[in-house]
Design goal:
Layout lengths: L2 H26 L8 H14 L5 E3 L5 E3 L6 H13 L3 H28 L2 H12 L2 H7 L5 H20 L3 H5 L7 H6 L2 H16 L6 H14 L3 H28 L16 H15 L2 H6 L7 H8 L3 H21 L11 H26 L8 H25 L2 H31 L7 H4 L2 H7 L6 E4 L2 H8 L4 E2 L4 E2 L4 E2 L3 H13 L3 E6 L6 H8 L4 E5 L2 E5 L2
Parallel strand pairs: 3-4, 3-7
Antiparallel strand pairs: 1-2, 5-6, 7-9, 8-9
Length: 550
Amino acid sequence: MSKRNQHILFFVFLIVIALGAMATLYVSTTAGLGFGNDSVAYVGAARNILDGNGYARTSGGGEIKPITHYPPLFSLVLAAGSALMRYDSIRIARGLIIFLWGLSVFLGGWLVWRTARSMIAGLLFAFFFAASGSLLFVYAVIMSEPLYISLTFAVFLLFFAYLNAPPSHEVANKPLGSLKMARWLRGSSFYLFLAGIISGLTYLTRYSGLAILATIVIVLLLIESGWKAKLRAILIYLVGALPSLLAWTLRNSLRGLSATNRVLSYHPIPADKIDYGFRQIWDWLIPGWFGGFTSDWPVLSILRASRDWLGTPYLAVGLIGAALLIWLVLTARRLPGDGNQRDPALILFFTSTLYLFVYLAAIVFSLFFFDASTPFHDRILAPVYISLLTAFVVFGAGLWRKAKSPLRILLMVLTLCAASISVANASQAVTPLQADPLGFASARWRNSKLIAAVKALPPETLIYSNSPTAIYILTDRPAYIMPTPIDPVDNQPRGSFSDDLNQLRTDLLAGKTALVIFQPDLENPALLTQLTEGIPLFFKAGDGQIFGKP
């Protein structure tokens, strides 16, 4: 079979896997996508854009306030889809994320094919990506991660095109009978410029998109020969990337806001949060249900025992991380060289692996100095899972090329076992998603008696709550966050807490305001006492209480 036909067949199979992934997510979310606090912010911002209020949120009193805490691209895409299709942003989000799920599978498979120099490896990556229960849960909620992941794949593919294309100055010297611009478009600089543009869009999707910019700049410093070439390549890339960053920063500055609604301050990461992050990655590597399922198997029973040992996640994840870090250091020496000597596939794999560490460093730095509330959930760790999956598949493909028959048989057995576990893991994710969406979209929230009572409150009553986002998305009524003594973003005391507390209590006793507490048993008892002592209990249900005299 000719190489062209092989490529056509590869893309046919890749499209089939992507369509199968889209069908799986479609079937899994027949009751709708899930909602979290961030989901409500994105949907609310999209609605305000459509209403002509700009990228803003609706505060508890109906005030329109500009948003800086969340970058705008995901909400802009939802608003554009709503304007074009005449559907609500929630409905648009489901169609968009199902499409992005398939697009991520397609682009990821394409990228790994180029990285591993193996079409089989690309198809295997696409399959494992589509069969990942953890990633399926990430895409089953209205969040910006699906758009961010798709854009990340696009950046890496464009960077690979830059590595493969002839230098722009060489193309410019060739006769084309056309304009200089047309000649430049055929050279490598054009792809690097496009990679910069998409990198800027990743920043407008998630602030951690800065990790992509830092990764590409580091790689350019390593692979280009001579400082003139290094600075030229970095300049071309940043010319594409910086307009998005500067435009967003300027918009916030003109409104008298901080760049990201985060203040630089030091707050140590709690040990339990670090432990949770390690265990999340470990659970992605070896799902917990699999350890229990194999507990009676003579050989695989070690998985059950390993999960009961507290040090297992640290040992397993630490060894994998150390191995990849050592590989990065050793490989960095092989990267420099002119365009004729460098290996584009090796550089692309190096870039993907380096991104894993730069991304983690960005998250850890943010936790230390900007946003202490960021959890190590699957949605935050999704880029880590994808980089690790890429590394496993690429190293596996390299080992296959060098191995002899016995080792190849072992690799085939391991791949089939991993595929079986992945399919079972995907089914473990699909079943609960079909039964009930996640977060505020779940039946527990939709059928909440407390939510029904909130809907019945007089329209003029202002609402304070420990979950204003749930109230907004389920009742279409804005609400304020109730006063708390500690700001969860920076773990610092709120200087205005006493005044806010006294004002809230005064308004509650005056009948102007209602305080809605969801699951009070999960709240700080001392804080609840400060908020509600002497305040009439207006309504009580199994899932919460309403205080005040509305």
